[in-house]
Design brief:
Oligomer: single chain
Structural class: mainly beta
Largest sheet: 4 strands, antiparallel
Order of helices and strands: HEEEEEEEEEEEE
Number of strands: 12
Number of helices: 1
Distance between the termini: 67 Å
Helix content: 10-25%
Strand content: over 45%
């Protein structure tokens, strides 16, 4: 009976953790215009709620989950580069060394290589792990959609 109680408690805790709302939010522009067979830079906005940070795209420790943004190529449009801002080195009580993190609001300039004319919708994922000064939440995968009008 005790084992069932422990199992049920663990299941409830895991379910609650899986349902925690994300603390970082990503927003691509609603619509972008670009020339055919060219390069265009699109600023994707990220906001991290106060009191939290997300791990940088290049964490200093091997076991830390990096932030990533991926967009699946479609109709000749593909990501050429995602430009991440410089991370902040910040000291936390649980780490002997400063960690490279992102806080607040920042832009991710995404360079896209376009193809032929037409409307193209790219789908992708923003993956991050949010922490505060006491705990880290499980990693989150947030869907991202970006529509381009290629002319």
């Amino acid at each position: 009976l005790w084992a069932w109680g422990v199992a049920l408690g663990t299941l409830v805790a895991l379910t609650a953790a899986a349902q925690l709302p994300g603390v970082a939010h990503i927003q691509a522009p609603a619509r972008v215009e670009a020339k055919a067979h060219a390069m265009v830079v699109v600023n994707v906005e990220v906001s991290v709620e106060p009191g939290f940070h997300i791990q940088s795209n290049q964490p200093k420790l091997d076991y830390i989950i990096p932030s990533t943004l991926t967009l699946t190529p479609a109709q000749g449009v593909a990501v050429a580069k995602v430009s991440w801002p410089a991370a902040k080195d910040k000291k936390f009580s649980f780490s002997p060394d400063p960690l490279a993190v992102f806080e607040g609001n920042f832009a991710l300039p995404v360079t896209l290589k376009t193809g032929a004319a037409g409307t193209v919708t790219l789908h992708g994922v923003f993956r991050y792990q949010a922490c505060n000064d006491q705990l880290c939440r499980p990693p989150v995968k947030q869907p991202v959609t970006l529509t381009l009008q290629v002319k």
